[in-house]
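Worked example 3 (structure in, sequence out).
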């Protein structure tokens, strides 16, 4: 792996591709494996990784492929993938995570919605928590 800082334009290209261009993601990771952990600040503290891009757009194939190569799981990706035990564990430990925002200010529940059928248990769990919170 390259020991120098990554080129910002290369990072930008990778993050954009991770929103849905699986072939390009593979090509770029093959070209520069360190992109796997790269993030970009789009503006005003709007940080995004390739995994984050795949998660908020519901691109399960890209997200799973990145995770298999060592990308770092987060609550947003777990929600999109339907990983209920991970989401519960984080919220049990850090209740404020229920209201955390991912890239572009996208809420956690929206990531679960983007996960479709496999993420329904997470979506139902989050909806229950938000409903209970609203009743209090």
């Amino acid at each position: 792996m390259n020991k120098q800082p990554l080129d910002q334009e290369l990072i930008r290209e990778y993050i954009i591709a991770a929103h849905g261009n699986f072939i390009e993601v593979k090509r770029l990771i093959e070209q520069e494996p360190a992109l796997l952990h790269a993030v970009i600040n789009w503006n005003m503290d709007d940080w995004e990784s390739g995994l984050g891009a795949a998660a908020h757009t519901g691109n399960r194939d890209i997200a799973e492929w990145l995770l298999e190569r060592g990308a770092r799981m987060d609550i947003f990706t777990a929600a999109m993938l339907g990983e209920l035990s991970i989401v519960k564990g984080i919220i049990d430990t850090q209740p404020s995570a229920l209201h955390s925002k991912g890239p572009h200010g996208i809420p956690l529940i929206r990531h679960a919605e983007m996960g479709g059928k496999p993420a329904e248990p997470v979506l139902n769990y989050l909806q229950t928590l938000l409903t209970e919170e609203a009743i209090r």
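Notes: The mean pLDDT is 96. Residues 75 and 87 are 6 Å apart (CA to CA).
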